[in-house]
Amino acid sequence: MTLTPLDIQKKEFRKSFRGYSEEEVKDFLEKVTQSYEKLYRENQELKEEIKFLREKLKEYQELETTLKKAIILAEKAAEDLKRNAEREKELIIKDARVKAEEMLAKAKMRCDVLSERYEEIKAQFQLFKTRFLNFLQSQIDLINSAGLDGEDYVKEAAAGHDFEGEEGGENGDGGGKEAVGGGDNSL
């Protein structure tokens, strides 16, 4: 059983012969009661303070636990975010590479088609040029082999041409030659 200041104050002692002075005992008990009462109050206050501090400590420990969990969650979220960002970056880079390769392949194919078309046109032009030069050469050779000079060629060409319907030549009586010669036989 815990002793309280009231217990000390109400304590009565038996009287005995040649015992202690009653007045001194009462005075001493009064001092002890006051001291004990003071200590008892301090003890109660300290107990309440300890209780309050324990509650605060518990709150702080719970807060610390909550903060640790929050930090762990934040770190995990940051790691997830970083990992997702890295994954997304890799996907974007991969997609860009694929698109770039597709664009390069299309450009190369287009370049090959254009190059092939260019070579075809170049070959066709060479063929045309060769044929045209051959044609011109054959015409020159024909003219040279005919042994005609310019006037004879014009006369032959005019003689082979039918000038019907022109002035003075309705019946084919030579009016055409006059028309070509202009009426002057100096050719």
TrEMBL record:
Query: Where does it localize?
Result: Cytoplasm
Q: Which GO terms describe its cellular component?
A: cytoplasm
What family is reported? Belongs to the DivIVA family.
UniProt lineage: Bacteria, Bacillati, Bacillota, Clostridia, Thermosediminibacterales
Report whether Protein biosynthesis shows up as a keyword of the record. Answer: no
User: Which InterPro entries does this UniProt record tie to the protein?
Assistant: DivIVA_domain (IPR019933), DivIVA_fam (IPR007793)
- This chain's protein is named Cell division initiation protein
Q: Which UniProt keywords apply?
A: Cell cycle, Cell division, Coiled coil, Cytoplasm
- Compositional bias segments (type: Gly residues): 171-187
One GO BP annotation of this record: cell division
Coiled coil (UniProt feature): 29-124
